[in-house]
Amino acid sequence: MGIDPGLTRCGIGVVQGEPGRPLSMVDVGVVRTAADLPVAQRLVQIETGLEAWIEEHRPDAVAVERVFAQHNVRTVMGTAQASGIAMVVAARRGLPVAMHTPSEVKAAVSGSGRADKAQVAAMVTRLLRLDAAPKPADASDALALAITHVWRGAARTRLEEAVARAGAAR
After folding, report:
1. Are 25 and 142 in contact (CB under 8 A)?
2. pTM of the predicted structure, to 2 decimals
3. Would you name the residues annotated as active-site residues?
4. C-beta atoms surrounding 101 within 10 Å
């Protein structure tokens, strides 16, 4: 499951597959919150929405976009808060959580870490053999996160486990 965190729109995408095999989209959507609600209520709505998605789809892992510094501190704060909720919801269920940077996701799905949203959406559409790009962009970005994690997360997890085993053996 990929989660593109946001306070107004939190994209969620579920894909099925494994490295080297064609992937398929299971589901995609967005948890929306009203801008006129207090932040605490918006975070509860995001939590409730993510809980429902995880309950319905029972993913093996959750990939969340790593928040990066932007010029608009208010936007970054909301994104970081939504990201924290996503990580807590997954961790509460014992799911592994991976963080992927926007440039890592862009590079994984399009071949370029500088791809724009339209290029990412086009590649997500192509890779998942969809008739049209998921809308809004938050939904497409969530699927791109899930794809990235399927392709890169498995290798990263194996490396982390090997390092942990080596450390425990010492």
Report:
1. no
2. 0.90
3. 4, 65, 138
4. 14
